Amino acid sequence: MSADEKFENATDKMGGQAKEGFGKLTGDKETQAEGQAQQGKADAKDKLQDARDTVKGAVGGMFGKKDKTD
């Protein structure tokens, strides 16, 4: 996973946490739920990118290629 992808996912997660907190503070359940969904999406993207990197490494290992990270 590239540094840009990590930064984007971390930004999305922090934004979701802020939105969730604001929703709790104001009693707005919809905003709170949107924040939770945003955090879940960021977590899912992290897991997908980690899985992609794992597969790339395994395929590279099978064919003798070195993993090239961005």
UniProtKB/TrEMBL annotation:
Gene3D superfamilies, per the entry: YjbJ
InterPro entries reported in the protein's UniProt record: CsbD, YjbJ_sf
Residue ranges the record marks as coiled coil: none
CsbD-like domain: residues covered: 5-56
Pfam families, per database record: CsbD
Signal peptide: none
Similarity comment: family membership: Belongs to the UPF0337 (CsbD) family.
The protein's name: CsbD family protein
Organism: Brachybacterium tyrofermentans
